């Protein structure tokens, strides 16, 4: 873990892990274990991270992130890329990468070239599997797109979460159905349309919740992300995070608001059985 009593900068960091780090998942965590207290992340940024966008990667890794724009460095040779790192990190003694790491122009250099070019320690971490499935950001994205958030959570090692500002909704919730917080979510990959058992974080407090994603086909037809906090807790917020537990059902069209409200009440009842415990079970380790 990093030394929080010391401000970590490029000048005093001695170890870096290199990668995209979208998701900061179980596989990435194996790289982080090799860094020590004066470590940092060299993030090759393609501006496509949507599991943990921006500095969320620093939050989930507990290490400072140093961003290198992919378009700016993709033309460098392997030798030029390593020279860049050594210029930027003057005390660099260790580089940590994954088993499939490639770098330089046209990804023509690999982990063997890295060991040849870098005069310090090079640590190559084997592929990590969880329940016999390789842990990769691409696999996690696909699970999220399919709505299998519980499967994605197991690969990430935490509940997948999104954040957004609270915006005005259509006004039906508190009057005719159940009160909801309507969110304006940017940058994050949204799970498949439907209804989910979730936890909603407001400030430092977390509440059980039910969250809807999709077009409101039973009312105005507009797309929305809205979350209902259970137990009718009187909450107000300008910004919230929603952590996904399990997909409950597809988005459905109802003939009237009474049918919709009855279905929402069933969703709430089912969600109550899930929001109290975080279950990220299974086993992880290198692939055999």
UniProtKB/TrEMBL annotation:
What is the catalytic activity of this protein?
A: riboflavin + ATP = FMN + ADP + H(+); FMN + ATP + H(+) = FAD + diphosphate
User: Which SUPFAM superfamilies does the record cross-reference, listed alphabetically?
Assistant: Nucleotidylyl transferase, Riboflavin kinase-like
Main EC class of this protein? Answer: transferase
Q: What Enzyme Commission number(s) does the record list for this chain?
A: 2.7.1.26, 2.7.7.2
Q: What keywords would UniProt list here? A: ATP-binding, FAD, Flavoprotein, FMN, Kinase, Multifunctional enzyme, Nucleotide-binding, Nucleotidyltransferase, Transferase
User: Annotated pathway, please?
Assistant: Cofactor biosynthesis; FAD biosynthesis; FAD from FMN: step 1/1; Cofactor biosynthesis; FMN biosynthesis; FMN from riboflavin (ATP route): step 1/1
One Gene Ontology MF term: riboflavin kinase activity
Q: What InterPro entries does the entry give? A: FAD_synthase (IPR015864), Riboflavin_kinase (IPR023468), Riboflavin_kinase_bac (IPR002606), Riboflavin_kinase_bac/euk (IPR015865), Riboflavin_kinase_dom_sf (IPR023465), Rossmann-like_a/b/a_fold (IPR014729)
**Entry's Gene Ontology BP terms:** FAD biosynthetic process; FMN biosynthetic process; riboflavin biosynthetic process
Provide the Riboflavin kinase domain boundaries: 155-276
Q: Which family does it belong to?
A: Belongs to the ribF family.
User: What is this protein for, i.e. what is its function?
Assistant: Catalyzes the phosphorylation of riboflavin to FMN followed by the adenylation of FMN to FAD.
Query: Which protein is depicted?
Result: Riboflavin biosynthesis protein
> Which organism does this record belong to?
Campylobacter curvus (strain 525.92)
């Amino acid at each position: 873990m990093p030394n929080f009593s010391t401000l970590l900068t490029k000048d005093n960091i001695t170890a870096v892990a290199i990668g995209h780090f979208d998701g900061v998942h179980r596989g990435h965590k194996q790289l982080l274990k090799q860094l020590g207290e004066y470590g940092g992340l060299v993030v090759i940024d393609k501006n496509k991270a949507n599991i943990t966008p921006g500095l969320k990667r620093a939050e989930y890794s507990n290490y400072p992130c140093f961003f290198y724009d992919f378009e700016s460095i993709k033309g460098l040779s392997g030798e030029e890329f390593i020279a860049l790192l050594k210029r930027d990190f003057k005390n660099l003694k260790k580089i940590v990468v994954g088993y499939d790491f490639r770098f330089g122009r046209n990804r023509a250099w690999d982990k063997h070239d890295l060991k040849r070019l870098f005069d310090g320690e090079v640590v190559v971490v084997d592929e990590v599997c969880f329940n016999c499935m390789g842990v990769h950001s691409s696999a996690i994205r696909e699970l999220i797109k399919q709505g299998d958030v519980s499967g994605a959570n197991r690969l990430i090692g935490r509940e997948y979460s999104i954040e957004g500002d609270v915006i005005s909704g259509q006004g039906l919730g508190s009057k005719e159905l159940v009160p909801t917080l309507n969110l304006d979510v940017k940058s994050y990959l949204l799970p498949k349309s439907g209804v989910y058992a979730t936890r909603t974080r407001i400030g430092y407090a977390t509440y059980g919740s039910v969250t809807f994603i999709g077009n409101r086909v039973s009312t105005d037809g507009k797309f929305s992300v809205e979350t209902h906090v259970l137990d009718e807790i009187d909450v107000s917020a300008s910004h919230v995070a929603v952590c996904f537990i399990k997909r409950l059902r597809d988005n459905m069209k109802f003939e009237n608001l009474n049918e919709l409200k009855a279905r929402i009440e069933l969703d709430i009842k089912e969600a109550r059985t899930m929001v109290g415990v975080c279950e990220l079970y299974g086993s992880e380790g290198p692939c055999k």
